[in-house]
Amino acid sequence: MKSAIKSGLLALAAAALPAVASAHPAIGEAAGFSHGFAHPVSGLDHVLAMVMVGVFAFQLGGRATWLVPTTFVLVMALGGALGVAGIAVPFVEIGIALSVVVLGAVVALNVKAPLAAALGVIGVFAIFHGHAHGAEMPENAAGAAYAAGFMIATALLHLAGLALGYVIGRAGERQGVFVTRTAGGIAAIAGVGLLAGLI
Q1: Cβ pair 68, 56 in contact under 8 A
Q2: 125 closest CA partner among 154, 156, 163
Q3: 3-state secondary structure at position 167
Q4: Quick one: pLDDT at residue 18?
Q5: Residues 65-68: contacts with CB within 8 Å, 24+ apart?
Q6: CA angle 60, 61, 67 (to 5 degrees)
Q7: Contact 122, 6 (CB under 8 A)
Q8: Using an 8 Å Cβ cutoff, are 136 and 40 in contact?
């Protein structure tokens, strides 16, 4: 059991490892694929939320395994378009921090939400995350590459979450549930820290 817990926590730490820089780089640096790709993986808030989306999708199983991440990426693109168009979305930073709290708690509590409800919640949070990316997207030819970068990075973080859920599940029903709840709890606590401005 100890090795299963250690493996799960190491996987969560590895997923969060890129979060060593500011979540939102300067607008002047936001150009092209590489900067778009770096944006979601450079902030703890984005990394934790995206990985939790993947774990949540794994927990729901069935069609949710692909519908939850796909919906997030597509709705995030809509949020990005709003940001690029300069259309204000209130409380973006709070919404992003809340997404970490809620998604972490949902994973920790193993909430078996109906698919429609899960997609609705995921969609709301995707708007906030997308707007944060889009507000820093350049309005030139590099904008499309930047958008592709942040969408691909987000999808890869979702895949990391799905893989994390699978690895934890392989640890066995009892140990897997404990490790998943621990990982979700850590994410939720980190989200509270983000809301409070402590992280």
Answers
A1: yes
A2: 154
A3: helix
A4: 37
A5: 65/162, 67/115, 67/119, 68/118, 68/119, 68/122
A6: 85
A7: no
A8: no
- Per the listing, tokens 């979060």 go with 19
Name the CA dihedral angle for 51, 55, 58, 64, rounded to a multiple of 10 degrees: -60
Structure tokens at 169: 């599940």
* Pair 158, 72: CB distance under 8 Å: yes
In whole angstroms, what is the distance from residue 125 CA to residue 130 CA? Answer: 9
Query: Which tens digits make up the pLDDT trace of 38-65?
Result: 878 888 899 999 999 999 999 999 999 9
CA dist., res. 96 & res. 92, Å (int): 6
For tokens 């997207």, the residue is 137
Q: What is the pTM of this model?
A: 0.79
Separation between Cα atoms, residue 102 and residue 17, nearest integer Å = 21
Max Cα-Cα span within the chain? 52
**Residue where the block lists tokens 């939790």:** 52
